[in-house]
Specification:
This protein is of the alpha/beta class and about 550 residues long. It is built from 20 helices and 25 strands. The termini are close together. Bound molecules: adenosine-5'-diphosphate.
Length: about 550
């Protein structure tokens, strides 16, 4: 059965009204705003009134470098949440919101898979509670206000060749990466080069996910740099005096969305910044809500641990004010064999030697997470093609590092398939964590980038382009150099070359350019060619989708 068939079958018989789920975590009718029967936003006031319980544990789920073979982070996150609840550990899951780009493209949705899913999956993967639309509107309102400012006399002397704020759309549309706007004469505006980002790559998405209140959201939006003036000085949203209008458009999007798993575990799905150009985690407000309303919060960070978890720990944690108590590293036998050099077509054949060769990728991620002082448990996301010999071999390899690797069958069995994982994670949290951040924000930009490259990627050195060097000088002059670094790198490799699988060493990372995201509060360091507007593949997932006369959806994974 496909993910959507499993979800639909269970939804019809089992899904509970969202008030019931809210009540499970102590939220009354007046604390939520319903969006239909099965979705709700939680009012910020309801969260402000609540304090953190004595016992509140945060579990971060991350993975090895993604491969076309698939890892299943969301699936394991959901299954682990369900398993903890089965063990009577009151648990809430916090996940990212899907973007229509990957939904229509190739990767799929963001609601898990098999019997570890969040429902109603059709709604969540499509328009949900309108957050993406609000973000797109807010992003484009700012773009329109910038062009209008120039058209109406350009009091701020904005240099139209140096505007960095792009327009946005939440779909993979490569034709819009670079566009020329304002053509057609004086009434149509001032012509200039522009471009589109996918909405999840907009700085507004990162801001929404890091903001702690409407006031904080507005202050962050005011700080956004939209480009330079003709003196090459930064122009901000505050200069344009439109932070109020943009914040207004996001006031509802800021509230965390509450849904449920197939096993009725309360789940917040809120915010979904790209994990390459941005920090790749759900909102601070949703994670905080989960921490306040449950004893255990299970959350996920995008892509592999080199990107998602590093940014979770170095960007999100300081703002959240809480570090994880445990890390779960998801790996699949298939993906490790792929890292060990096996072709996609041969991944179903038993191959312990390739698995052993590919283990270097998982090993480096384990060591990386341990550097932060965090206990690590490996979850082997079980596929039907995995053999007993392969599972045992992987468990033995992990045991050599004193790490438990648990065969996890949540895709096939839901929470029941994650009980062993849940018990191992609970046991790993028995010892006190001596959390050690990777770097100090007071260090220089060069030092911070070099620390990430050497200590997380396993690289040798960093090269900065002439442009990047010039930018670093400007950032020091502007007082922006004490912000954390958000690396924009391929998710497929520890290096900046997507073809270097396993655990490459001796490589140099080149920083082409920086993007100062002052609203989000980090400096994006661009390596290689990172796309902020993806394209659709030759056979987009859209080809399989349909809707029947009664509104039933098919082919949405
Ligand atoms: P990630 O969060 O790592 O991107 P997901 O959890 O979203 O991955 O899973 C991606 C896809 O892989 C989903 O369609 C899901 O149904 C499928 N999948 C995940 N785990 C398994 C598994 N153990 N067996 C078969 N398919 C799986």
């Amino acid at each position: 059965m496909s993910d959507i068939e499993i979800a639909q079958q269970n939804e019809q018989s089992e899904i509970k009204p969202i008030q019931t789920i809210a009540a499970q975590i102590g939220l009354g009718q007046h604390d939520i705003e319903q969006y239909g029967e099965y979705k709700a936003k939680v009012k910020l006031a309801a969260l402000d009134q609540r304090t953190l319980p004595q016992e509140h544990k945060l579990i971060l789920v991350t993975s090895i470098n993604p491969t076309p073979a698939g890892e299943g982070k969301s699936t394991v996150t959901i299954g682990l949440g369900d398993a903890l609840n089965r063990l009577n550990k009151q648990t809430i899951i916090a996940l990212r919101e899907p973007s229509l780009g990957p939904v229509m493209g190739i990767k799929g949705g963001a609601t898990g898979g098999g019997y570890a899913q969040v429902v109603p999956m059709e709604d969540i993967n499509l328009h949900f509670t309108g957050d993406m639309h609000a973000l797109t509107s807010a992003n484009n309102t700012l773009a329109a206000l910038i062009d209008n400012h120039i058209q109406q006399g350009n009091e701020l002397h904005i240099d139209q060749r140096r505007i960095t704020w792009k327009r946005a759309l939440d779909i993979n549309d490569r034709a819009l990466r670079n566009v020329v706007i304002g053509l057609g004469g004086p009434f149509q505006g001032v012509p200039r080069e522009d471009g589109f980002n996918i909405t999840v790559a907009s700085e507004l998405m990162a801001i929404l996910c890091l903001a702690t209140s409407i006031t904080d959201l507005k202050a962050r939006i005011a700080r956004i740099v939209i480009g330079d003036n003709d003196q090459k000085q930064p122009v901000t949203v505050a200069d344009l005096k439109v932070q109020g209008a943009i914040t207004m458009l996001l006031k509802d999007a800021l509230k965390p969305n509450l849904v449920q798993t197939l096993e009725h575990t309360p789940t917040f799905i809120h915010g979904g910044p790209f994990a390459n150009i941005a920090h790749g985690c759900n909102s601070i407000l949703a994670t905080t809500a989960a921490l306040k309303l449950a004893d255990y919060t299970v959350t996920e960070a995008g892509f592999g641990a080199d990107l998602g978890a590093e940014k979770f720990l170095d960007i999100k944690v300081p703002q959240l004010g809480k570090h994880p108590d445990a890390v779960v590293l998801v790996a699949t036998i298939r993906a490790l064999k792929y890292n060990g050099g096996v072709a996609l077509a041969d991944l179903k054949t038993e191959n312990v030697a390739a698995l052993t060769a590919g283990f270097v990728n998982l090993k480096r991620h384990i060591k990386n997470m341990q550097q932060y002082g965090l206990p690590v448990t490996v979850s082997i996301n079980h596929f039907v093609s995995d053999t007993a010999a392969e599972v045992t071999a992987l468990q033995n390899l992990c045991a050599e590092l004193n790490v438990q690797a648990i065969d996890t069958k949540v895709w096939a069995n839901g929470g029941a398939g994650g009980i062993d994982l849940a018990n191992a994670v609970l046991a790993s949290m028995q010892t006190t964590v001596d959390y050690r951040p990777l770097y100090d924000n007071q260090a220089s930009i060069t030092d911070k980038v070099t620390t990430i490259v050497q200590k997380i990627y396993g690289g040798q050195a960093v090269e900065f382009s002439t442009k990047a060097k010039r930018q670093m000088q400007t950032f020091v002059a502007n007082g922006w150099d004490k912000l954390p670094i958000c690396m924009a790198k391929t998710q497929y490799s520890f290096s900046d070359d997507p073809k270097q699988l396993g655990a490459p060493t001796d490589f140099t990372i080149t920083i082409r350019e920086f993007v100062p995201d002052l609203g989000a509060g980090f400096l994006v360091a661009l390596t290689g060619n990172v796309l902020t507007m993806p394209g659709l593949p030759k056979k987009p997932a859209a080809l399989n989708m349909d809707v029947a006369a009664d509104g039933t959806i098919t082919g949405l994974f």
